[in-house]
Write a structure and sequence with these properties.
The complex is a heterodimer of chains A (322) and B (287). Chain A has 322 residues and is mostly helical. Helix content of chain A is 73%, strand content 2%. Chain A has one domain. In chain A, the strands form 2 sheets. Chain A has a two-stranded antiparallel ribbon with strand order 1-4. In chain A, strands 2-3 form a two-stranded antiparallel ribbon. Chain A starts with 5 loop residues before the first helix and ends with a helix. The mean pLDDT of chain A is 88. In chain B, α9 runs parallel beside α11. Chain B has a domain of 194 residues. In chain B, β1 and β2 form a beta hairpin. With 287 residues, chain B is mostly helical. Chain B is globular and about 65 Å long. Chain B has a two-stranded antiparallel ribbon. Classes of the chains: A mainly alpha (322), B mainly alpha (287). Chains A and B meet through α5, α10 and α12 of A and α4, α9 and α11 of B. Chain B: It comes from Marinomonas hwangdonensis. Chain B: InterPro entries: ABC_transp_permease, BCAA_transport_permease.
């Protein structure tokens, strides 16, 4: 069975049906549909980070680089006033991001621990400043997307990307697929080796596995999915700007991760919902929401390390025990 | 680029590098001794600049403000180490990153709560407001030279403390073997508090001296933090000597890049860092 833990199954049964029905409850209230769509997109991004940080132990503070690249690659590649095919560009963007991740991974993964944190950050800052300073790509203002892609496959067009509800379902589907993909990856032979590297890199090497290759592959896959999330974000809001690449994007994603529960994959969704929900509530209440958010983060790290997913698991395990 | 302009840029680069050293030295010291990566280190630089602005408004004296700010920073350092950082010694890097990100949130919120989000400025103190003429048109402000000299004095003092005093001996011992130092009867937790507080104070003092020559804006801490990361990575984590060389290199690369390739200037230090890492993955002076 793919979902072993009770908490996971409960989450799958509650979250996805609810998410499917949500647009009906919201009765086409565009603001909330858009907000939820953003949460789906961010969840994909955070989930790809969770795979790196939680499963592979590769702590990066530069994941936003790929998020931003997803958006920038689209505006670089696609013609300005012509609708391109969504799926074809999905492939292009993921493939090119993967290639970039391969090159950067070769450099970054030579280091580990604190060094890796700082070097990933530095690469992200490099792209941030590159796009902030480039006249061709609008500097700090970024670039607008005038025409959204069409989504036909073999003449069949399922989604109209200009329609917020359609876009919502596209993102939900992407999120569902991402979740399944990572679950399968974690349970596959590849995932087992990655697990083994976490437990004991020396022994894994002795068993004949090239652990660098496994780390690099993980980095490439997670980066490509991060780029996909950035691509969706750019399509949703119709623009891309350097703030997507900024280190606060990476930092916030890490915060979402700890809220949800590191290493649980589905916790990424819980964390994103919690963070965005809190942000929304606090921001309406006080201009100094960061004070409370900061306090919460500190509290989480200190006493509540396992996040919401961990809390759920503990709760349901206890019931099992009785 | 004629020779006068070259000299001006050279001094600018060195001066900027020296300010970076002041901040990066605290970062690398805390990492070297305690193994903590403090992302909120840049926030201390910001706090220093804001405190300087606040006290100059109220006392009118720059020197007095600098002194008060340094003392306050020292107190902040002690409190933060005793309450938060202490919890991190036995935790992994991820916890360090997350906790200090939380601290950044808090410091930024406090800054906007206490001082608002408008850019602020501190006037150059009167005694140092003059300029030295270099040629007919170009002159160089005395204050910038003062900043450079001040940083060199601090660097020399640090060198002296670390290499010649009892405290420095303990710091060096703590770096190489924590357990052994504890076994010898040294109160290591007090040592850690002192080191962290000194690190915080160095960053805040850098904020104070940089206040008159830069604008005081929200987010200034994060910006400088990332430049300091580059310094520390180039120099080698935990090495003060490395931080000094790294800071000067970064200062010079940044200054000359903004003259020679203005469009790409902000990213040049990162390119430079990647280049250094290709040759020496552990930095120039890794311990």
């Amino acid at each position: 069975m793919l979902f072993k833990k009770r908490a996971e199954r409960l989450f799958m049964w509650v979250f996805f049906p609810l998410a499917l029905l949500m647009p009906m409850f919201l009765e086409q209230n565009e603001y909330y549909v858009n907000k939820l769509t953003t949460i789906m997109i961010l969840s994909i991004f955070v989930m790809s980070l969770d795979y790196l940080v939680g499963k592979c132990g590769l702590i990066t503070l530069g994941h936003a680089m790929f998020y931003g690249l997803g958006g920038y690659l689209f505006v670089i590649l696609a013609p300005e006033y012509e609708a391109v095919n969504f799926w074809v560009y999905t492939f292009y963007i993921c493939a090119i991001s993967a290639a970039i991740a391969l090159v950067i991974g070769l450099l970054v993964l030579r280091t580990s621990g604190i060094y890796m944190i700082m070097i990933t950050l530095a690469f992200a800052q490099m792209t941030f400043y590159y796009f902030s300073g480039s006249i061709d790509y609008g500097g700090t203002d970024g670039v607008f997307v005038y025409v959204k892609p069409e989504t036909s496959i073999f003449g069949l067009s399922l989604f109209d990307l200009d329609n917020p509800t359609h876009f919502y379902y596209l993102c939900l589907l992407s999120l569902f697929n991402t979740l399944l993909f990572f679950k399968v990856l974690v349970r596959s032979q590849f995932g087992r080796v990655v697990d083994a590297i976490q437990v004991n890199p020396g022994r894994t090497t002795a068993l004949g596995y090239n652990i660098f290759v496994y780390k690099l592959m993980s980095y490439v896959v997670a980066s490509a999915l991060g780029a996909y999330a950035g691509y969706l974000f750019t399509l949703q809001y119709g623009f891309v700007n350097p703030s997507m690449l900024s280190w606060t994007t990476s930092g916030t994603a890490l915060v979402m991760l700890i809220l949800g529960g590191i290493g649980s994959i589905y916790g990424a969704i819980l964390g994103t919902i919690t963070y965005e929900g809190l942000h929304y509530t606090l921001e309406h209440w006080t201009e100094h929401w960061m004070l409370f958010m900061g306090g919460l983060i500190i509290l989480m790290v200190m006493v509540f390390k396992k996040g919401i997913a961990g809390f759920l698991e503990d709760l349901l395990e206890k019931r099992d025990g009785k | 680029m004629d020779s006068t302009l070259f000299i001006v840029q050279l001094i600018n680069g060195i001066q900027y590098g020296l300010v970076l050293f002041l901040i990066a030295s605290g970062l690398t010291l805390v990492f070297g001794v305690m193994g903590i990566l403090n992302l909120a280190h840049g926030s201390m630089y910001m706090v220093g600049a804001y405190l300087a602005w606040y006290f100059v408004q109220h006392t009118g004296s720059f020197a007095l403000s600098a002194f008060i700010s340094a003392v306050i920073a020292l107190c902040i350092g002690v409190v933060v180490e005793r309450t938060l950082i202490r919890q991190l010694y036995r935790r992994n890097h991820l916890d360090q990153v997350l906790l200090t990100i939380g601290m950044i949130f808090v410091f930024n919120a406090l800054q906007s709560l206490l001082w608002g989000n408008d850019p602020l400025g501190v006037e150059v103190p009167e005694a140092l407001a003059a300029s030295i003429p270099l040629t007919g048109i170009i002159e160089y402000p005395v204050y910038r030279i003062f900043v450079a000299v001040f940083c060199i004095v601090v660097a020399a003092a640090m060198y002296y403390v670390i290499n010649k005093t009892r405290l420095g001996m303990l710091i060096r011992a703590g770096e190489s073997n924590r357990e052994m130092v504890e076994c010898l009867g040294v109160d290591i937790s007090r040592l850690y508090t002192i080191v962290f507080a000194i690190g915080v104070m160095l960053a805040a003092v850098a904020g104070v001296v940089a206040a008159p020559i830069s604008s005081i804006v929200p987010g200034m801490g994060e910006h400088i933090l990332i430049s300091c990361f580059v310094v520390v990575v180039i120099g080698g984590m935990g090495s003060i000597k490395g931080a000094f060389v790294g800071a000067l290199l970064v200062g010079l690369v940044d200054t000359f890049a903004s003259v020679l390739v203005p469009e790409l200037s902000s990213m040049m230090i990162y390119v430079f860092m990647a280049f250094v890492l290709l040759l020496k993955p552990q930095g120039l002076f890794s311990s």
